[in-house]
Design goal:
9 helices; alpha+beta; 4 strands; about 300 residues
């Protein structure tokens, strides 16, 4: 067995002894890490589900071209040719004034229980244009809308551009908020774990000084505390993942039916596996950095004596 392996084995045994002798302090750090990672995890769950909803809604976006009442057959033919020339267009559906009015009356009767009976039809005829799925689908729709909005016979164009723009800005805000929250929580956890490790160091101060006097290397002294910090991070992250999974299962069982009503076919998702692994690694890194800071500061103090 190599010297490094021996140091790690001895360090792990010392870590277990440290945890047993300071179990309350250790558990406080673990619970604090778990709560902080849970907060970050819940934000991730919300973000990923919003992203799934937006992607699903994105696939259903259509470009609706409303026509003027006095549009000529020649203008309609030109518009249809323009639609067909776009290779990204998947389907074109013409909606007459009568069909639009019937669909509108039916939707109002279903949603509000209103039976509309006017002597005139206020709705224009239109085209519903569906686009093929692609990474920049909304951009293609926007560009094509700008092309045809000034064509003869076109009254107006609609594809929810204002709503899409606001939602995209909201998603950007969520990303920035997640990164800022992650950074703030990580900094706070480093301080908390660092103080916990420092307490553990001072509880073994006489033993550490004796080890150094009989020839132990600083690395040998640091290893148990570094492993303790990593163990705190690992334990806290695993506990937080368990808590998040319980809450996720509860929310899914309670609100999945409501989501099906609002957006059919969309399921409530948990955090993807790569991000779960990232949370565990982040927690372990926080524990390692906090332990390293505490042990390094302590060694600097000893060297000055």
């Amino acid at each position: 067995m190599s010297s490094i392996s021996q140091e790690l084995l001895i360090g792990f045994q010392a870590t277990v002894a440290n945890v047993r002798s300071n179990i309350q302090t250790f558990m406080i750090s673990v619970i604090t890490i778990a709560i902080s990672i849970c907060i970050l995890g819940f934000f991730l769950i919300i973000f990923f589900n919003l992203n799934v909803f937006f992607s699903s809604w994105n696939q259903q976006v259509q470009l609706i071209v409303y026509l003027k009442d006095d549009i000529t057959q020649s203008n309609k033919k030109d518009l249809e040719n323009l639609f067909k020339q776009n290779s990204r267009v998947q389907s074109i559906e013409e909606v007459t004034k009568d069909r639009a009015w019937k669909e509108f009356r039916k939707s109002q009767e279903k949603k509000l229980g209103l039976e509309l009976d006017f002597d005139f039809n206020p709705l224009p005829s239109s085209y519903r244009i569906s686009f093929k799925l692609s990474d920049n689908r909304l951009l293609h729709i926007s560009e094509f809308a700008n092309i045809i909005q000034n064509e003869l016979g076109v009254e107006s164009i609609e594809y929810g551009e204002n709503w899409i723009s606001r939602f995209e800005k909201f998603m950007v805000f969520c990303r920035v908020f997640l990164m800022a929250s992650g950074a703030l929580l990580s900094f706070g956890l480093i301080l908390i774990v660092s103080n916990t490790i420092r307490l553990s160091i001072y509880s073994r101060q006489d033993e550490i000084e004796l080890m150094l006097l009989i020839g132990a290397t600083p690395r040998f002294v640091k290893i148990p505390f570094l492993l303790e910090g990593i163990l705190q991070g690992l334990s806290g992250s695993l506990l937080s993942l368990g808590l998040m999974l319980v809450v996720y299962c509860y929310l899914k069982s309670e609100f999945q039916a409501s989501m099906d009503y609002i957006a059919s076919g969309i399921e409530f998702h948990f955090i993807p596996q790569p991000y779960l692994l990232s949370l565990v690694v982040l927690s372990m890194m926080i524990g390692f950095v906090a332990s390293y800071v505490s042990t390094r500061q302590y060694m600097q103090v000893l060297n000055k004596k």
